[in-house]
Amino acid sequence: MLRKTMMRLACVPLAAALAACGSAPVAPGYYRVERGDTVTKIARAHHESVPSIVRWNNLTNPNSIEVGQVLRVVPPGTNAAAGAPIRTNPGTATASAGGTAPVLAAPEATAPANGISLIWPTAGKVIHGFDGVNYKGIDIANAAGTPIVAAAAGTVVYAGNGLRGYGNLLIVKHDADFLTAYAHNRTMLVKEGEHVAQGQKIAEMGDTDNDRVALHFELRYGGKSIDPSRYLPSR
């Protein structure tokens, strides 16, 4: 059951967060869903079949894609630059014939080593680490009600439970590049638009939309996942 939940989390984008913070360019071979898109429309635009798009993205319901969701639109293991141009959101670069960028199964951003200074968002045991492919953050387990604090100062850009698989979710934007996400909270203590200080209590640990009490913690750079453990102090 826990494995099933982890896989569901890995496949759900932080759509609301990316919309609030500005959409980053997607990697060659991928497309970010826009308002009004359907799987059929996306498949036709990229000269692929609907079953292929469904299979490459493990879509359980092709009629339920979300704005901001990133979908693979070329076959796994191929070079996107060798095919037709890949359409991205307005104002972003496109990958055209003659390019050399390979298609990555799960692109991870490369952030400057000194880009952000984090503290641990909660006390507890890390029960699942980041792998960048099937798991886009870390899970820290403890008792229900354990305090959750802001890992760095910033502004709350999302506070709600509208993203499937994340339960009660807080997203804090730290600057133009970095944001952190705190999922499965029992209680959320801050609201959208509120500025929070590093170490300020923002929530209490819970199990909303999860099968055990734990904090699912993500770090994003330019909208893409980064291993939070690289930026957290040793303990």
UniProtKB/TrEMBL annotation:
Residues 29-73 form the LysM domain. Coiled coil: none annotated. InterPro entries: Cell_wall_metabolism_enzyme (IPR050570), Dup_hybrid_motif (IPR011055), LysM (IPR018392), LysM_dom_sf (IPR036779), M23ase_b-sheet_dom (IPR016047). It holds the Pfam family LysM. PROSITE patterns: LYSM (PS51782), PROKAR_LIPOPROTEIN (PS51257). It comes from the Bacteria. Keywords: Signal. The keyword tRNA processing does not apply. SUPFAM superfamilies: Duplicated hybrid motif (SSF51261). GO terms for molecular function: metalloendopeptidase activity. Gene3D superfamilies: Glucose Permease (Domain IIA), LysM domain. Residues 1-19 form the signal peptide. GO terms for cellular component: cell division site; cell outer membrane. Belongs to the E.coli NlpD/Haemophilus LppB family. PANTHER family: MUREIN HYDROLASE ACTIVATOR NLPD, PEPTIDASE-RELATED. This is LysM peptidoglycan-binding domain-containing protein. It comes from Trinickia dinghuensis.
